């Protein structure tokens, strides 16, 4: 009997232990603890928690640290109660997000952020920063809208390109593109030699600039030294100004007494009172100034006189006169051509230019002689002789008139004592000028064509480069570079302003 009771006790103990273990394992599988210890609660609010269930995991950096223990509605927003492990302490700036694991995965709450500059959240604390990631349904709706837009665009393209007219238009477009490609290819092939020549000229120009800078290193050093001298002078000037201000503060000199002497202050007050008395008399119309201020007739006459003076001064301000001297080095012949031009600008949109040119190449002239001889009983014969004569060191003249429209200017008149025309284009606030000139139109020879550019620097200097007589049939074309000096002669402008100049 006793043995039977012992066996029953053992069986009862075994069953009791098994029940306890089964209950514990059930709670562990359901992610619930038998006793709520080692955890604390935080609260977070979302506008929507669609798809999120109670018991959903709470993760930080992909590691589960708690679960969602409650979901309820509060003031139109979803309130989540997060049950977190006590070892995980969060700061007040932590961010809570509802995330989706995979395309069709479950929802969970992800926590991120949090810095030591903010305090820790205690039991029942509220996470202020929450964000809901894009919901799958919302994303699908947006994808559907994009698909609808693509369909609308496709229909529009189909309506434009569909049918015989659209097909014909598309065919014409491709044919035009093909013709354009062929034309561009032919243009490039025709101008290969010209492009090579331009590259060669630019290389030569670069070499000339290098030589020019090397030859003027001493001048550049002098300019830097002048800047240093000016800086030292400015420092000395500031020292002098500080000394003068210190003397004024100490009451030295007239300015110092004016600031610090009470008697001088009283005198100044009396002077101001006298000025006030004079102003009162003027306001009452007493004296010449009073009549001038209060009499309309006097003021009208004065206004007319001032208008006449202003009109004269405005004309003088718009009238500009400038002189420039330049020298061009002709690379092919090794000669130098010099210019001295005076530019007269009565207004901003038109100008006159006169000048002298010294051209060492001179001008080539041809003389044709026809001689007819007859022999008794024979056929008359004619002899044709051509004589070329080159005049060197010839002095020629410029006399041109021009009109400007914005950045474009057109010139016409005498170019080196021959008729011609020129075109100028200004860029970079008139610091860079591109020029093209055509003159010396002869029946037998090609006209003299010249193209180049001028770059103005250091206010009164400019550099120039280009091609001279590039259409010559006698080998007279040459690449040129040069420098020039440009300045405004105020005395000459004053003398010229005394003579009437027509202004349109």
Automatic annotation (TrEMBL):
Superkingdom classification of source: Bacteria
InterPro entries named among the record's database cross-references: Mce/MlaD, MlaD_Phospholipid_Transporter
Q: Write out the transmembrane intervals.
A: 7-27
UniProt keywords (A-Z) are: Membrane, Transmembrane, Transmembrane helix
A single Gene Ontology MF term assigned here is: phospholipid binding
User: What residues does the Mce/MlaD domain cover?
Assistant: 40-114
Protein name in the entry:
Phospholipid/cholesterol/gamma-HCH transport system substrate-binding protein
């Amino acid at each position: 009997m006793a043995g039977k009771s012992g066996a029953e006790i053992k069986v009862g103990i075994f069953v009791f232990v098994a029940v306890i273990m089964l209950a514990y394992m059930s709670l562990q599988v359901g992610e619930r603890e038998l006793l709520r210890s080692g955890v604390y609660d935080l609260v977070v609010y979302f506008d929507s928690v669609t798809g999120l269930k109670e018991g959903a995991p709470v993760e930080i950096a992909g590691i589960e640290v708690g679960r969602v223990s409650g979901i309820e509605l509060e003031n139109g927003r979803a309130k989540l109660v997060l049950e977190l492990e006590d070892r995980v302490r969060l700061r007040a700036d932590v961010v809570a997000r509802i995330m989706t694991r995979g395309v069709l995965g479950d929802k969970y709450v992800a926590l991120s952020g949090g810095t030591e500059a903010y305090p820790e959240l205690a039991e029942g604390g509220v996470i202020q920063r929450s964000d809901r990631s894009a919901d799958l349904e919302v994303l699908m709706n947006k994808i559907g809208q994009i698909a609808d837009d693509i369909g609308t665009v496709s229909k529009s393209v189909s309506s434009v390109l569909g049918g015989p007219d659209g097909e014909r238009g598309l065919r014409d477009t491709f044919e035009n593109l093909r013709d354009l490609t062929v034309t561009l290819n032919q243009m490039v092939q025709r101008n290969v030699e010209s492009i090579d020549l331009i590259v060669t000229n630019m290389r030569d120009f670069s070499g000339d600039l290098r030589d020019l800078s090397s030859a003027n290193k001493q001048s550049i050093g002098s300019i830097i030294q002048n800047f240093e001298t000016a800086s030292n002078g400015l420092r000395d000037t500031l020292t002098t100004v500080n000394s003068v201000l210190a003397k004024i503060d100490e009451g030295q000199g007239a300015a110092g007494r004016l600031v610090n002497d009470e008697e001088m202050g009283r005198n100044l007050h009396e002077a101001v009172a006298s000025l006030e008395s004079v102003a009162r008399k003027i306001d009452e119309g007493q004296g010449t100034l009073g009549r001038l201020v209060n009499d309309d007739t006097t003021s009208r006459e004065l206004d007319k006189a001032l208008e006449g003076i202003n009109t004269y001064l405005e004309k003088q301000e718009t009238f500009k006169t400038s002189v420039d001297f330049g020298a061009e080095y002709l690379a092919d012949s090794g000669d130098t051509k010099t210019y001295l031009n005076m530019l007269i600008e009565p207004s901003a949109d038109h100008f006159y230019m006169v000048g002298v040119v010294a051209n060492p190449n001179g001008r080539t002239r041809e003389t044709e002689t026809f001689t007819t001889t007859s022999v008794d009983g024979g056929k008359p014969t004619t002899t044709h002789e051509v004589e070329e004569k080159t005049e060197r060191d010839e002095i020629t003249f410029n006399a041109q008139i021009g009109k400007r429209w914005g950045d474009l200017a057109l010139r016409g008149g005498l170019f080196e004592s021959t008729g011609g025309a020129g075109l100028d284009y200004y860029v970079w606030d008139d610091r860079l000028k591109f020029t093209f000139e055509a003159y010396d139109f002869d029946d037998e020879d090609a006209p003299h064509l010249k193209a180049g550019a001028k770059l103005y620097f250091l206010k009164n200097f400019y550099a120039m480069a280009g091609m001279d007589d590039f259409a010559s049939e006698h080998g007279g074309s040459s690449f040129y570079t040069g420098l020039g000096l440009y300045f405004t002669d105020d005395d000459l402008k004053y003398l010229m302003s005394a003579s009437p100049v027509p202004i349109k």
